[in-house]
C-alpha cells in the first residue's frame, strides 16, 4: 500500500474505510456442512456487484464485495450467515443473492463428499505460511476464465 502511495491509515484502522450503502446477507437454508463452492458463480457475482471489471473501461466499486463466513467442510446451522454481500445497489444485491444461493452447497451428511482437495489445499496454505491463494477455473465450452481469491485466516 505504501509503495503505491496508498492510505496506510485504512490498513491500521479498517473502520475508516468507506461503508457500502447496502449490506445484505445470504443465510443457510438448512443445517449441514459446506460441501461445494462454485468459484465461477462466486467470481461472476462479485463482478456483477462491481468488485471487478467486465471490460477494461469499467470502473471498480471499492466498497462492493463478498465476505465469506464459512469455508468448505465447515458445519453450519439453519439461519447462519454464509455470505455478507456489499454493494452500492440493492438491485445488484438481489440479483447476486439468487446466483450465490446456487453457488454454495451444503448437505446434512458428509459421507458422500470428498473434501480431500479442500483439506489438502488448506494444509498447503498453512505449511507455506500463506494467507491467500488465487484459483482460476477454465470452461472451454464457454470460453471463459473465472478467478477467485481464497483467503485463509490462520487463527
What are the SSEs and their pairings?
Blueprint: H1 8-12, E1 22-27, E2 32-37, H2 39-49, E3 65-68, E4 75-76, E5 81-87, H3 90-103, E6 104-107, H4 116-127, E7 132-139, E8 144-151
Order of helical and strand elements = HEEHEEEHEHEE
Low-confidence stretches: 111-115, 129-155
Helix/sheet category: alpha+beta
N- to C-terminal distance: 24 Å
Write down the overall geometry.
globular
Q: State the total count of DSSP E strands.
A: 8
- Specify Rg, calculated over alpha carbons: 17 Å
Could you name the key traits of this structure?
155 residues; alpha+beta; 3-stranded antiparallel β-sheet; 4 helices; disordered C terminus
Plain-language structure description:
It contains 4 helices and 8 strands, in the order αββαβββαβαββ. The protein is of the alpha+beta class. β7 and β8 form a beta hairpin. The chain starts with 7 loop residues before the first helix and ends with a strand. The strands form 3 sheets. Strands 1-5-3 form a 3-stranded antiparallel beta sheet, covered by helices on one side. It has a 3-stranded antiparallel beta sheet with strand order 4-2-6.
Amino acid at each position: 500500500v505504501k509503495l503505491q502511495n496508498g492510505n496506510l491509515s485504512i490498513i491500521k484502522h479498517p473502520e475508516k474505510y468507506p461503508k457500502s450503502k447496502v449490506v445484505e446477507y445470504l443465510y443457510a437454508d438448512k443445517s449441514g456442512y459446506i460441501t461445494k463452492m462454485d468459484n465461477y458463480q462466486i467470481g461472476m457475482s462479485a463482478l456483477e456487484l462491481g468488485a471487478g471489471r467486465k471490460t477494461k473501461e469499467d470502473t471498480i466499486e471499492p466498497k462492493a464485495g463478498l465476505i465469506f463466513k464459512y469455508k468448505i467442510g465447515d458445519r453450519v446451522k439453519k439461519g447462519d450467515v454464509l455470505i455478507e454481500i456489499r454493494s452500492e445497489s440493492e438491485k445488484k444485491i438481489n440479483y447476486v443473492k439468487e446466483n450465490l444461493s446456487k453457488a454454495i452447497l451444503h448437505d446434512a451428511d458428509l459421507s458422500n463428499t470428498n473434501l480431500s482437495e479442500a483439506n489438502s489445499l488448506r494444509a498447503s496454505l498453512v505449511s507455506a505460511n500463506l494467507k491467500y491463494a488465487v484459483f482460476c477455473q477454465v470452461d472451454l465450452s464457454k470460453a471463459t476464465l473465472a478467478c477467485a481469491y481464497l483467503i485463509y485466516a490462520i487463527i
